Task: inverse folding
């Protein structure tokens, strides 16, 4: 496990701490002609070698260096303004997958999927997935009864901001409940109430105020119920 931790540490240091913004811009402008691309990959190779400090694992160092270059090069070639954000997350995901593969291929550790597909882990995955898009759709369906667009006509906000805020708050509430910290749920509700106080105070529409309160209560309520169900079921499987 220590080897895996060192590989992840080398990746995060190399990608986020030892890669200045001006390097990123220079790579985006010059793509494969950028010397910063090759310097960036070299830094990853050196970091990985230093942290591992075991040249019997040269296969890992070499593989990570080559694959890092290929992944970054492909990203630079196909990257456009519209897909830049998506490619960033895909890029990081692929790098981490490569690291895990290197760890299991070049060391004596074995990967057994059955060890991870337990009832508890699958139930946890189901709960987390349910609290994201499905719950957002459920809440949107509930609010079809009211003309929300009319109530929020003059209230400009970031695109899909409410959706992502709701997803994050439900996941946080769920996590707080399954780890037994109900007080953190209360703090989160209080914090959101403070931020929402300005909207509620300045709103001239009682209906908008009621919409905000109903939405908050439904969102938190679903997350709390999901957390309780998960906790009860895990006790049953234990």
Result:
């Amino acid at each position: 496990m220590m080897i895996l931790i060192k590989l992840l540490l080398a990746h995060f240091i190399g990608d986020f701490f030892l890669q200045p913004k001006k390097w990123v811009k220079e790579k985006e402008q010059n793509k494969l002609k950028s010397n910063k691309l090759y310097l960036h990959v070299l830094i990853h190779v050196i970091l990985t070698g230093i942290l591992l400090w075991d040249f019997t694992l040269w296969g890992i160092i070499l593989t990570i260096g080559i694959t890092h270059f290929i992944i970054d090069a492909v990203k630079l070639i196909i990257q456009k303004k519209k897909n830049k954000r998506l490619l960033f997350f895909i890029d990081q995901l692929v790098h981490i997958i490569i690291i895990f593969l290197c760890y299991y291929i070049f060391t004596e550790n074995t990967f057994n999927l059955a060890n991870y597909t337990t009832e508890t882990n699958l139930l946890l995955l189901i709960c987390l997935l349910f609290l994201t898009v499905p719950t957002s759709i459920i809440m949107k369906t509930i609010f079809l009864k009211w003309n929300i667009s009319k109530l929020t006509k003059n209230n400009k906000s970031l695109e899909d901001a409410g959706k992502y805020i709701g997803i994050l708050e439900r996941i946080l509430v769920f996590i707080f409940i399954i780890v037994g910290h109900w007080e953190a749920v209360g703090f989160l509700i209080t914090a959101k109430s403070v931020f929402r106080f300005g909207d509620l105070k300045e709103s001239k529409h009682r209906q908008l105020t009621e919409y905000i309160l109903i939405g908050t209560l439904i969102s938190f309520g679903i997350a709390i119920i999901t957390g309780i169900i998960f906790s009860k079921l895990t006790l049953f499987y234990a």
